[in-house]
C-alpha cells in the first residue's frame, strides 16, 4: 500500500514517515511527502495512493477544503485527518466528506498505530482495495481505446499513475480475467468483426495489434473454437 503524508511541519512530517517505516515496513510500499497543497496535488497527479495523511493546517489551503481535491484526483484513496484542532466543526466537516478517520495532535505512537491498524484491517477486509469498480473501469476503457497498440501491463499502469500489481488484482477481481488475457479477448473479438465485414485475415490481425499472423491464428482458434478464415461461416 502507498501513503502520502501532507504535513507542513518538517519535523512532524519526518516523524510520521519514520513511524510508517518502523511500524509497517512490509505493509506500505512507499511514502510520498508534501508540505503544502500545491506539492500534494503534484504527488496525487503523478501516483496513486491508498492512504492520505492530511494535516488540517496547511500554508496554502485549508485541509478540510483539500479533501475535495483528493477525492477528485484520487477517488480510490482514503483520508486520515491529522489535526491539532479538537474543534468539533472541523471533525464534523471531515466526517461529512467521508474521511476514514482522524488523529489529534499531539499523538503517541500507540494512538498512531491504533488508527493505522484500523485502516489496514479495513483495507484487507474489503478485498485489498477501495473503489475497485472505478479502477477496473478505467483499465477497461484504456484497453478499449488502445487495444491495437503494442501495450504492456506497465504501460497501462503508467497511464493511470498506478502500480501494475495493484491494477492487476483489482481488474481480475472485477472481470474474472487478467488484464493481458482480457486484452487478447478484445483483440480477437475486434478481428472477428472485421473479418465478418469483409477484411481478410492478415489485414484484420494487423489491424488489432498482432504482428505475427500465425500467433493470431492460434489465439483466435483457441478462443473461438474455429480458425479465423471460418469466421463468416460461424454466422
Task: Describe the structure using short key phrases.
alpha/beta; Arc Repressor Mutant, subunit A; 235 residues
Poorly predicted sequence stretches spanning 5 or more consecutive residues: 125-133
Can you say what the CATH homologous superfamily of the largest domain is? Response regulator
Question: What number is the mean pLDDT?
Answer: 85
Kindly state the percentage of residues in helix. 55-70%
The count of strands amounts to 5
Top-tier CATH class of the largest domain: Alpha Beta
Written description of the protein model:
By secondary structure, this protein is α/β, with parallel strands linked by helices. It is 58% helix and 11% strand. It folds into two domains: 124 residues, 3-Layer(aba) Sandwich (Rossmann fold); 103 residues, Orthogonal Bundle (Arc Repressor Mutant, subunit A), CATH 1.10.10.60.
How is the topology of this model organized?
Elements: E1 2-6, H1 10-23, E2 30-34, H2 37-46, E3 51-55, H3 63-73, E4 78-83, H4 88-96, E5 101-104, H5 109-125, H6 132-146, H7 153-160, H8 164-175, H9 179-196, H10 201-207, H11 213-224, H12 231-234
Parallel strand pairs: 1-2, 1-3, 3-4, 4-5
Helix pairs in contact: 2-3, 6-8, 9-10
Q: Can you give me a brief rundown of this structure?
A:
The protein is an alpha/beta fold. Helix content is 58%, strand content 11%.
Amino acid at each position: 500500500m502507498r501513503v502520502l503524508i501532507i504535513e507542513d511541519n518538517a519535523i512532524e512530517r519526518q516523524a510520521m514517515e519514520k513511524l510508517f517505516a518502523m511500524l509497517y515496513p512490509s505493509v506500505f510500499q512507499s511514502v510520498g511527502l508534501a508540505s503544502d497543497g500545491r506539492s500534494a496535488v503534484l504527488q496525487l497527479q503523478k501516483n496513486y495512493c491508498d492512504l492520505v495523511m492530511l494535516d488540517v493546517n496547511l500554508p496554502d489551503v485549508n485541509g478540510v477544503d483539500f479533501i475535495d481535491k483528493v477525492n477528485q484526483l484520487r477517488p480510490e484513496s482514503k483520508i486520515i485527518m491529522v489535526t491539532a484542532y479538537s474543534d468539533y466543526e472541523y471533525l464534523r466537516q471531515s466526517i461529512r466528506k467521508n474521511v476514514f478517520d482522524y488523529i489529534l495532535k499531539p499523538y503517541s505512537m500507540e494512538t498512531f498505530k491504533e488508527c493505522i491498524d484500523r485502516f489496514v484491517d479495513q483495507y484487507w477486509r474489503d478485498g485489498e482495495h477501495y473503489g475497485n469498480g472505478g479502477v477496473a473501469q478505467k483499465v477497461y476503457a484504456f484497453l478499449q481505446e488502445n487495444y491495437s497498440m503494442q501495450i504492456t501491463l506497465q504501460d497501462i499502469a503508467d497511464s493511470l499513475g498506478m502500480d501494475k500489481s495493484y491494477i492487476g488484482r483489482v481488474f481480475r477481481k472485477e472481470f474474472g480475467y487478467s488484464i493481458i488475457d482480457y486484452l487478447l479477448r478484445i483483440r480477437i473479438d475486434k478481428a472477428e468483426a472485421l473479418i465478418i465485414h469483409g477484411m481478410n485475415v492478415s489485414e484484420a490481425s494487423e489491424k488489432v495489434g498482432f504482428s505475427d499472423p500465425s500467433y493470431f491464428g492460434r489465439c483466435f482458434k483457441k478462443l473461438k473454437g474455429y480458425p479465423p478464415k471460418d469466421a463468416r461461416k460461424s454466422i
